Amino acid sequence: MSVYFLTGCAGFIASNVAEMLLEAGHSVYGIDDRNNAYSVLLKDWRLKQLSRFENFHFQEVDITDRIALENFFQEALTRECLAHFDACIHLAARAGVRYSVENPWIYLDTNVTGTLNLLELCRHSGTQKFVAASSSSVYGNSSAEIFHEDQRTDFPCSPYAASKKAAEALIFSYHHLYGIDVSVLRFFTVYGPAGRPDMSILRFIHAIAEEKPITLYGDGTQERDFTYCRDIASGVLASLRPVGYETFNLGGDHTYSVNQLIEIVANILGKKPLIKQYPPHRADVARTHADISNAREKLGWKPCWDFRAGIAETIRWYLENRDWFSAEMKD
Ligand SMILES: NC(=O)c1ccc[n+]([C@@H]2O[C@H](COP(=O)([O-])OP(=O)(O)OC[C@H]3O[C@@H](n4cnc5c(N)ncnc54)[C@H](O)[C@@H]3O)[C@@H](O)[C@H]2O)c1
Description:
By secondary structure, the chain is of the alpha/beta class. Helix content is 43%, strand content 18%. α6 links the parallel β5 (129-135) and β6. Nicotinamide-adenine-dinucleotide binds at residues 8, 10-14, 31-35, 43, 62-64, 91-95, 110, 114, 133, 135, 187, 189-190, 196.
């Protein structure tokens, strides 16, 4: 059984990854700063689900706080009588495109300096495997039919996307200098139970369930390659193997328009959506579509969840947790 250092474990994706690792019998040392970018109650709800595993060890740590980070990292290794972790899985970030336009500093500090702090700990401890979350947003407003890892990523449309691109470059330099084995994972619009309340799917579910108007930027023809959270978590686990240095798109392999998404949610809930339309946001891209052949070939990974089934699961979770969760949703 392996011992992993996991960042952002109160977050949506990392909590799914932690659960899958713990279910497989591994040990997880998780950190998160529990910031209030969105509902802290939701972050605590996720941590509570993980607390049932005795091999889960959590500490509230900010990855930009080098001293606190190093202390927890070293304490964890001492407790396990290890020199290094089997891997560092770095999923903590300031996420979300639109808010990065308002406060770009916190995105750069967290996503770039925070990443640097972790890379330094890996190199000094001899932790040889680094898995990092990047994003489809690095492709910018690409006109390509389908996004391939080799295409240019020089035109990010937001400080968030630029911070992810910067982190990718920094991670490569650590691979080059110190031989750290790296899997960079570019996630495509991840959704599912206990997902992010600032993202479209839970916002739409909440608005339609409550019979309130949906806030829609653009005309709804924008398309996304939506990916279910359990598929993403299995992709993260698959990427723990040695690969040298590789970048993998992890996407759902189908693109749906936002209008189609609204229709599916409304159908499952049996309600008519009310829509309040705003002009498109300049930080949003028109379309995303992942070419996932690299992950298929080198990781043996493929998404298994059908979009409608994933949305139904998300709605089921929302309805079960509606009493406390609705109060956490902003319109
Ligand atoms: N959800 C998506 O659709 C999506 C798409 C592309 C990429 N990503 C990337 O995947 C990763 C996980 O995203 P998510 O959707 O789970 O977001 P999330 O916000 O739910 O999770 C990120 C977690 O990191 C924590 N965090 C933020 N700053 C921190 C700091 N300074 N120190 C310690 N912890 C900190 C947050 O509190 C949060 O719990 C991020 O790197 C994100 O950029 C997500």
